[in-house]
Amino acid sequence: MSTEDSWLCTPLAVYDEIFGKYGLLGNEKFCCLIEEAVAANLSRIPVINVTPLDSIPDGHLVCVQGMVQDMFNMELFMDDFRVNTADSLNRRSFRFRDFDSLQLDDAEDPSGVHFSERQSLYIVPVPGESSWVQSISFSAEFCPIKPSRQTNLPSDKIHFIVLNEYHNIRLSRCKYVPCPTEVGVKRSIFPKNEDMPTEAKKAKGRETSSSKLKPGKQFPLSEEEEDETKVGVLVRVYDEMKDVLKINELVQVYGILEHARLGSFFPPEDFAPEGKGPEPIPRVHSIVLKRLRHINPLLMETASLTTPLEPSFPKVLTESADRLRTSSAREDLFTSLLECFKGDALTAEYTLLHLVSSGISSDQTADSPYPNNLPALNIVCPLTVDHGATTGGVVKSTENPSSLLVNRLRLLLPCLVTQFAPIKLTLESLNTGPSLMPIRDAAKGALDAGRLQLPDGTEVFVDETDMTVGQLQPRGLLSFRALSLLATQQRVPYDFQFYSQDWKTECRVLIISTGPSLIKVCSSRLFDSD
């Protein structure tokens, strides 16, 4: 490994060298160095979202993108201290590494200790992320490129050439293979020429043997937990970024990977302060953190690192070429929806308006040339008494038209939006199914994700076609209220045990039912299945 790659393979060693020379003033110098290196070498950095954790060595620089599912209390760490060694007084820091008392067993008590604060965030893969976004996002967003050759092809053809090149880059990144000698190597604050304490060596061996345990998961959409490629990550955030982040925000983090350390003589609960369960959770110590407005890989605009997120609106289209492309895109979308709704043009128009709407309040859209604040949409597909009947010797479909419509929409909508969250609304799912609202587990000290804990811009697809008559239990009433608040007021209630709070959100809600929905939305459309 060349010294030029130290920022990528051993960034902690680079930090220790800078810190030893500049002390606390070196923190900013190190972050600037890594930020510049990241900008110039995006394609070389393994992305946890698409790279198996087993193939990334401990201490490597990585990227992780996802949603802030939970936030934990501030914690103190030793940001600057001095320890006496055999022949010198060394200056060290626990920044970008988890504290382990074993590392100081053979050293004298640290002196001149300066404490700082950091905060831990539980980052999960973006809930309901569409497959087309996954296919190109870790190429298009991290590796913006231009077509490899000049061409006179129309702009749409150039677009597909670029997407193909994005796809090729993504495939190459998924095959990331580290240096074999570095896999599983654990970090220490001891320089290479110093002996590690005996107990630390034993613990290190136990850590390596336990690294094969599967990471714990706590995702809003429980079906995504079965996907072994999706992993939740505990991100340690330092400096001012810890004060501006909020739950449900989309973030992109470049930091130092620290594989979960289990198997030492400490009790298990000491290794799961996050409260996400006894399974190991990989940690990433954040160096560069960006707040994202969206995850659409074809739209490159993102938020700045520290400024609050503000709504952005499209500029007025003045050029004829822009108007032509917009008109063509709308025609393509309308054609797809028209086919999905079997020629019902009015329902297709309603749905298209719904898809381009948002839940931003009217005071924020006052200056927008395209106000798009629309309520949730309820498409009513009545039950027909003659499905499965025979007419003129021809047997009609044995499936209910409402079920067929739901199936078509579940196939089409993920192709049109970046995030898609389906919800099956039945009496049983409300009373005994997964909770729709997030609830804080006081015993674990963690927030159990509800199905409605979603980032802004998510399309919530509610299938109410199998709702039956019955009585809602207290749990069902809470879940139904949460869904109603989302659809009518763009708010989701969070239960923090000692108090509850309605959390503002911006998710579109589309409801398919066989009669007027139980959720009293203001916009509904009767779908004619014939």
TrEMBL record:
Family membership noted in the UniProt record: Belongs to the MCMBP family.
GO molecular function terms attached to this record: chromatin binding
Compositional bias annotation for Basic and acidic residues: 196-209
Protein name (Swiss-Prot/TrEMBL): Mini-chromosome maintenance complex-binding protein
GO biological process: DNA-templated DNA replication
Keyword Nucleus: yes
Subcellular localization(s) per the UniProt record: Nucleus
Gene Ontology CC: nucleus
Taxonomy, superkingdom: Eukaryota
Keyword Nucleus: yes
Ranges for region Disordered: 196-225
A Pfam short name: MCM_bind
Keyword tags: Nucleus
InterPro entries reported in the protein's UniProt record: MCM_complex-bd
Organism, as annotated: Paragonimus heterotremus
